[in-house]
Amino acid sequence: MIKKNPDTATIPVYDLRHIDAEAQHGLMVARFRDYLDQHYPHLRRPHRHSFYHLVLFTKGSGTHTIDFETFDVRAGQAYFMSPGQVHSWQFEGDVEGYVVHFQPSFFTAFLHNDRYLERFAFFSGRPERSVCQLPGSELGRVAGLFEDLLEEVRLGKTGAIDLVRLRLLEFFIRTDRVCGGDKDDAPAPQKSLLLRHFRQLIDEHFRELRLPREYAALLYVTPNHLNALCRDLLGTTAGDLIRDRVLLEAKRLLTHADLTVAAVADNLHFDDPSYFNRFFRKYVGSTPDEFRKQHLHL
């Protein structure tokens, strides 16, 4: 049975030892059906993990939600989640496939570039990039990779964990070829790097810094340059990215029943709870209380 992390003050967070007490080397690999039989009752409600989580569906229907965006379950679909993202499931009938969990440190001792996973859009933390529908011609091949993972973990021979890392990296690269976009149309590396740094700064400072010019100063660029970068690469403004991150955290906090709306507003550094209510309703279309009731009664 999964235990909630007692130290968290927000939405329930599960770490790897609570999911699988016997997980070794910061890794868990399982058939999805077996995983559901053990954990599904506890994971239907919104929750998040302290580790990377990925699933390949080979059969099934229903829906799953990543950071409050809902996706239909289909055979051949893979989804990827980075630590901290929120998700839940609502399955219909039998669902089969494979599930892998690994700690952020799982690849760092293996790869010279400890930020290698950042090259894959599905690990960007953006829900719309987290799901990939693999064609039938590719599904059999990647399913074979997961069968190899299960076998290596089961046998535990010398070098098994390194082979698991290699098979996972092959899966990431094959998936990226299908859903990673046209590399010839990719933005210049310096633009991508600047945008990634901007997103990282937002994640670190969104509670206290709300203005694009404050982030532009940290990045040593002008506010106009930062705004132009966001419009060029994402079709949105720097201010929109900051606002959306605040709203995402508000949604995450509101799905914890023990926090009042006023406490959520305070956590996000809103001086006036009534202003937080107006802000949330303007951009989400419902009040914080309405949003909470909808998601706590899933």
From TrEMBL:
The keyword Iron-sulfur does not apply. This is Helix-turn-helix transcriptional regulator. Gene3D superfamilies: Homeodomain-like, Jelly Rolls. Residues 196-294 form the HTH araC/xylS-type domain. InterPro entries: AraC-bd (IPR003313), Homeodomain-like_sf (IPR009057), HTH-like (IPR037923), HTH_AraC (IPR018060), RmlC-like_jellyroll (IPR014710). Transmembrane segments: none annotated. It holds the Pfam family AraC_binding. It comes from Flaviaesturariibacter amylovorans. SMART domains: HTH_ARAC. The keyword Transcription applies. Keywords: DNA-binding, Transcription, Transcription regulation. It comes from the Bacteria.
